[in-house]
Amino acid sequence: MAEIVLDKVSKRYPDGALAVQEVNLEIADGEFIILVGPSGCGKSTTLNMIAGLEDITEGELRIGGQRVNEKAPKDRDIAMVFQSYALYPHMTVKENMAFPLRLAKVDNATVERKVSEAAEILDLTQHLERKPSNLSGGQRQRVAMGRAIVRNPKAFLMDEPLSNLDAKLRVQMRTSVSRLQKQLGTTTVYVTHDQTEAMTLGDRVVVMRGGVVQQIGAPQFLYEHPANLFVAGFIGSPSMNFVPATLENGSLRSVLGDCTLTDRVRQLVEGADAPREVIMGIRPEHFEDAALVDAAVLAAGGKFTSQVDVLESMGSDKYAYFNLTGEQAASAELQELAADAGSDDVPGDGISLVTRLSSASGAVEGASADIWFDADKVQLFDPSSGRNLTYTER
Amino acid sequence: MAGIGGAETTGKRVGWGLLNAVVVIYALFPVLWIVSLSFKSSKTLADGNFIPREWSFENYQNIFSTTEFTRALINSIGIALIATAIAVVFGTMAAYAIARLDFPGKNLLVGVSLLIAMFPQVSLVSPLFEIERSLGLFDTWPGLILPYITFALPLAIYTLSAFFREIPWELEKAAKMDGATPGQAFRRVIAPLAAPGVFTTAILVFIFCWNDFLFAISLTSTEQSRTVPVALSFFTGSSQFEDPAGSIAAAAVVITIPIILFVLFFQRRIVAGLTSGAVKG
User: What whole-number distance in Å separates Cα of residue A68 and Cα of residue A157?
Assistant: First the structure.
């Protein structure tokens, strides 16, 4: 058990590529922290540097107050769970889990006790004598976890531990990982590219892009107050809608219709010295079928009418998809997000919009619908820098 | 091919059976012929019968009655085993480095070892002969072991590095995280997984050393270090006019046995798919 401090940690490869740039991060004792970002954002490199599998080019890494930059992985007393589980195929489950203890020259009785304890926690007791090749994916994953927990390390590092499991099992394992971490109270650094895991698991989330930390905060905070376009687009599923818009005398003009900014938003925008042309971001749940909104509330938002492209009824809600004519919001960050999602080569002109409507909505696929959105929930971004113009700490 | 006709038809099965039989007969007939020859007595040696009319162990008694063959057999086994052991140990280390590390001169090393493997051995025999004579290695065990290692190493490195590349690197990282030193990670995780590759390589290298004739005949002159393939060529009949074919056949059968034993022994260890279960599901 220990806190982990990354002090301006950078990683530069011999070919000059900068994989991680000046990461500052203080992980408290017992905290569950998530590193998230698209592939190639440096999250795994950061994890490997904490593990000691990659050298730190610049900066200092402290575990439990001690500088460990020069220490070999075995001297850092941290355990790691790999994406591929990396179980030793020539050893049984028991031998796999006992391996760290054997290396530490722990006496036999203690090894037996600790392995059976871990097996108990992970429900592996009846599989102890089997080889990894005879186990299912979920069981292998648990063995990998078991190997990490047997020796009570200072910290757990997990590198996308659930990404090889099928969807249903992943949800199940996600809750058990979370429960296990709470139970053991061990500092955990968890790398994932899955924003759902990031939202549900961690105490705090670190969003990374191109080796640079974009924002650090509690999941809910990142969702409500993204620092920039990238975080806004990355966190949330379905993701935030982005539409180019123009600021004019306290009102916002876009293909979603004109709306007056609320006082709260206007103050923030004025304080941020906003340009005229902005990107407007609005989450799917901040839309509603205009017919279901009170007249008084209706005025405090924008309204547009368009044909429903696709309507998905989820029972509790309805997702209505629109395709509006107009220029797409353009920014480097949005392009990167689209590339990561694999949607950058999906053909289609115009702005695609996802809205979550109440199940009482009478919207019909192919027919026109009146849609309202909450002007107070609008987030505005600077298209050139990606900065959130409406960012606030509260 | 199952997709074409659905279930396998009888005709197809018979066809394949015949084809297999032809291949097996073609491959094994010379071997059987030698075995048959070795059991014939000197009188019936040239009678042209495939199955000996009278079985005799005369030839076997002959080759084991003098030291000429037994001594050569000891030489062969000793030299091949030592050369194999050394080549496999060095080959394992080199192949591991090549598969895992990026060090300066890596491509050069691979290139040079490939070059050695391609070099026609016959062109090296004369210089080797001179070198070994001046170094006092001529007609000694080390005098054969050294060139065998030299030519077996590239083979060993190539086969082994292919096996090492198959082993997921994450296993080694996992071992390091579990508290292993690089040496422990290699001994307790990597080496056991590379065992099939090591055994395969050992078989190949052993066969190469065992079968070599060129170096053995050029770099030896007496029974002291002459190996079996060379000793065979020095066989003579009991008189000048007698054909040593029977003795040669018997010796050929005898020297096939260690190879078969060697392969059978190690084959059990070459279990395909040993690494399955290490990663993913």
Answer: 15
